[in-house]
Amino acid sequence: MSLPQTLWRAQAEFQKIPTSMKGKGSQQAVMSTSLRVSPSIHGYHFDTASRKKAVGNIFENVDQESLQRLFKNSGDKKAEERAKIIFTIDQDLEEKTRALMALKRRTKDKLFQFLKLRKYSIQVH
């Protein structure tokens, strides 16, 4: 559907709206030009050719120290251990995933242990 056809249909739909809803008194509401617009309506296409191609391993061109810094700067207390897991060469992808999930689970368990201990110590006093 071309842009003029789209505008014509929008104007026809606008004319179906009761006058009481269009505006107060003799003022008529002005049709909004904000229609649902996509590049294909105007004949343009998204420029996907300049985007980076997806890769299977997002850590492919990253060294271990850079990855540790990235994790550390994001607040990860186990940055070194997490980077070692990712850069272990003899593990396949599933093993790495399991190791990272186990690390996450251990961290979560320690947090819950701390919170329970803190709650218990508050109740005792």
From TrEMBL:
One GO BP: negative regulation of Notch signaling pathway
- Pfam families, sorted: TC1
Record-level Gene Ontology MF annotations: Notch binding
Give the InterPro entries listed for this entry.
Answer: Avpi1/C8orf4_dom, Tcim
The UniProt entry's GO CC annotations, sorted and at most eight, read:
cytosol; nucleus
Residue ranges constituting the Arginine vasopressin-induced protein 1/transcriptional and immune response regulator domain according to the UniProt record: 31-104
Which PANTHER family does the annotation name?
TRANSCRIPTIONAL AND IMMUNE RESPONSE REGULATOR (PTHR32358:SF1)
| Protein name per its UniProtKB record | Transcriptional and immune response regulator
The gene coding this protein: Tcim
